[in-house]
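2024-03-11 09:14:02 INFO receiving multi-entity request
2024-03-11 09:14:02 INFO entity count = two
2024-03-11 09:14:03 INFO echoing inputs for audit
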Amino acid sequence: MSATAAVSATTPLASRLLAELTAIVGAGNVLHQRDELLVYECDGYVVNKKVPDVVVFPTCTEHVVELVKLCNRHDVPYVPRGAGTSLSGGTLAVGGGVMICLTRMKRILEINTRDRYAIVEPGVVNVWLTRALAGTGFHYAPDPSSQTACTIGGNTATNSGGPHTLKYGVTVNHVKGVELVLPDASVVTIGGITDDPPGYDLTGLVVGSEGTFGVVTKVIVDLTRDPEAGRTLLAVFDTVEAATETVSGIIAAGIVPAALEMLDNLMIQAVEQAFGFGFPTAAGAILIIEVDGIDAGLDREAQLISEIVQSRGGRVQKSITWRTRKEPEYVAIWKSRKSAFGAVGRLSPTFCTQDGVVPRTLLPHIMRFIEGVARRYDIRIANVFHAGDGNIHPILLFDERDGEQVQRVLHASREILEECIRVGGSVTGEHGIGVEKMALMPRLFAPEDLAAMIAIRNALNPEGRCSPSKLLPSGGHCIERKSPGRRASA
Amino acid sequence: MVTATAMDGQQVQDAGIDLDWLTRKIEYRNFQECIHCGLCTASCPTYVETGNENDSPRGRIYLMRAVTDGRLGMGPHVRRHLELCLDCRACESACPSGVRYGTLIEPFKIALQKDAPAGAKASLLQRMILHHLFPYAGRVKTALAPARLFQKLGLLDLAEKSGMTRLLPPTLRRMMAMLPRLSGARPRLPEVLPPIGPKRARVALFLGCVADAMYPETNAATARVLQQNGCEVMVPRSQVCCGAIHYHSGVEQPAIALARRNMTAFDPDRLDAIIVNAAGCGAMLKEYPHMLPAAEHDQAARFVAKVKDISEFLVALGPVAPEHPVPLKVAYHDACHLCHAQQIRSQPRQLLAMIPGLELVPLEESELCCGAAGTYNLTQPEMSERLGRRKMDHIEATGASVVAAGNVGCILQIARKIKERRSTIEVVHPVDLLDRAYQGKQA
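2024-03-11 09:21:47 INFO inference complete, emitting structure
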C-alpha cells in the first residue's frame, strides 16, 4: 500500500491540496485548523487516535468524485465518516489524510411506498427515515441501538444489526442498491429499485465492506410494512442459564420472535439506575421477548412463550400489548435496552464491550465460560445481548488507572473471543472489524480465505488509498492494542 | 498561565481562558462520564444544522476537555463552537451515560464571557439590557411603553415597512422584530387571590420579568386557572427575575444575587408550591442549589422542592375538568427547558387533552429547540434564524391553527416567525387555552 503520504500542515503539497479541496467544496465545507480537527481523531472507539489532516463536507456525489480524484492525484489517503458512532474504529483516519465527512449529504431523495423503497443520501440518520415514514404504514427495519444517531451510510458500511434483525434481517437484507464512488473516481450504481437483479450480488459485497470499496453516496433501501400489532414480554429468571436455555426453547418451538434480548443482573442494575423502567434488580437475568404480526395470532404465541419461560423456571412479569411502536411503555422498555451500553457508565468509569457470536444453542455454554473467565481474572463482567442471534456483548468493567487490572481485562477479552471462534462462532456480530479486530482476522480465516478477500479489495481499491488499514490485515499495518476501550451502544 | 502539551507535541502556552477557575468549578469526573458513544449528536439542534462534530455535544465535551487538559488553547474556533451551544440540554435527555452537560458548558460560558476578546464581549447595549433592564419587570414595562403607544398608532408597522428600523443598532432591531402585539397595560395582580371552591392548596406565583412585561395576560390566566383548581394564590411583591438570562450568558454574580432575593421572597415552609409558567425560569429556579455556594445548599434545596411548573403541579394535584369547549386544532411544542431540563413532557399534553373539542396534533421534531434559547436569538442570530425557520416549517406542516408552548422565549420566537410569514397561526401558552376552557371566552 502506498497510502502513507500524510499531509503536514506546512508543506507546499498541503497548502496546494487545501486550496484545491476548497475549490471543490467551498471554504465553509473544509476544516483544516488544528483545533477543529481534534474532535475527528476518534469515533465511538477511543483506543486508537489519529487526527486527520483535513476534514471535508461534500454536499453531492460530484463533490465526492472530485475529492477522490484529488486524493489520487496527490497520493493522499482518505476515509469516509458518518456520525462517528463506530465501535471498532471504522472511521479512524489511520494514515492521516482527508476525512470525507458525509453528514451534509443528508437528504431523503425519494420515498416510494407502492414499490416499497426509499433512496437516501449516506448522511441520513437511521431514525430520520423511520420518522419520515410515520403514518405511511412502513418503516426501515434495521434498528441498531444507536439508530437515533448513526447514519444509513455507516449502517451500510458496517452491515449493522439491531434487536429486530432476528426476524427482519440485518442491513444487507434491506439494501437494494447503492451509488458508489469507486477509488478510481468513477461512479457506479449497483443494484436498483427492483429485487434480485441478475449477475453477481455486488450490493451484498459492498454492504459491510467498511469503506474499503469506495464511498457510498446514495443508498436504495427496502421499506418494511409495519406489523399490525405486537406483544413485548418481560421474562424474569433466577439464573442466566435458565434465560439462555429459554432462548433455545423458544426458537426450537418454531416461534420467530421479532426480538429476543437478554440482560444479566449487573446490566439490569445499570439500566434500572439510568431509566427506572421497573426491571427486577434482584433477578439473575431478564429476557425481552417480542412477537409481532397479525393481531389474532399473537396472544396464542405469547401464551406459548410464557409456558416455555415457566418450564425453565422463569416467569413473565409484564406483557405489553401494542398497536404501534410509539406507545409510551413500548418506547420506554426499548429505550432502556438500546441505551444499555451507555448506562454501564454508571457502574464503572471504564469498561470494554466485546462483540462475539456463537451458535445459538451454545449460549448457555459461552455464558458459563464467561462466568468462569470473570472468576479466574477477578473482573466484573456485565452481559446484554441479542440472544436470538447468538450475538453476545460481554462488558468488562475495570479501572483504567490500574495497569495490572487492564492487562487482566485484555487477556479475559481474548479468551472469550477465542472461545467464540473455537465453538464455530465469530469475533464480531455487528460492530465490524474496523481497526480494532484486524489482528483477530487471521484466527478467524485461513490464509487462503484472507488472500481471496484481499484480492477482491485490491481489484477495487488497488492503491489502498480508500480507508487504508481497515478490515483486512495487510503487512505491517495492524495496530496493536495496548489497552481495552470504553465503548457504548451496540 | 497554563502550560501543557499540545496535540502535536507543542506547548499550549496560553490556555486562553481562566483554567484555574474552571478546574475549581468543574469536577473532572464529569468529563469522564462521557464515553464518546455519540448517541447525543443527532439530538443537538446545532449539529443537526451544521453536521460538524465540533457543533455536537460530544464534540463540545471533547473540546472543553482538551482545553482543560492543555491539549488545546481557547482560540477563536473553539470559542465559536462553544458559544454556538444553545444550552437546550437535548443532549442530556439523549445521553445514556448520564453526563451532566450543563455542569460543563455553563462554567465554560461564564469563563468565555469573562475572558472574551473585545470584539466578542457583550456590547454595552446588550449588557445594559441584561443587567439593568431584564431583571426588573417594571423597567421592561416602562421601556416598552413607547413601543406600545407606537404600535397602537400603527407607527411601528410604518417604521418597519419604511425600513426606518434599520437605523437602529442590530440588537435593538432584532428585539423590535420580536415584540409581540402588546396588550394595554394591565393592573398588577393582587398579592393574594382566593381559591374558587374548597381550598386545596396554597401556592405562590412566580411572574418572571420578560414574561410579565410581554404577556401579562398569561400570568393572569395562570392565576385564574390556579384559583379554578382550588388554590389560594400568593403573588409576592419582592420577587425578582430568576437570573437565567444572566447565568446562561455567562454572568454569574448578578444571577446569584437574584437567586438569594427570590429565596427570601418565597417562603417554602408556608407554601405548597411555587408555580412557574415559563420553562426557562422554572429550570433556573430548580438549579439554584447548583449555582449557590455549598453553605446555602440546604436552604436552596428546601426552596427548590416547592418549585413546580404549572402543568406539573396541576397534573399532580388532579386538575378540575374544564367545561367549555375550545374547538381548535393545536400543536404542542416542547420547550427545551421543560422537556430536557425538567423532563416534563406528558403533563402539558394531558392538560390540553382535557379541553373539550380541542384536537392535539403531533408536531415533528417537537423537542428540537426553536432557536430562542434565552438571549441566543440576540447573540447568535444566524443559527437562531435557521432553527426558527425549521420549527416554523414543522408547525405549518401540522395544519394546526394554534401552537402551544410552555415558555415565553419560545412564544416570542415562534410569534416572530408567524409575523414574518404573515401566517394566521396563533401561538399561546397551554395555560391560556386552559383558561379559555374554564372561562368560556374565545380569544
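2024-03-11 09:21:48 INFO post-check: The domain at 108-225 of chain A is CATH 3.30.465.10 (Uridine Diphospho-n-acetylenolpyruvylglucosamine Reductase; domain 3).
2024-03-11 09:21:48 INFO post-check: Chain A has 16 helices and 20 strands.
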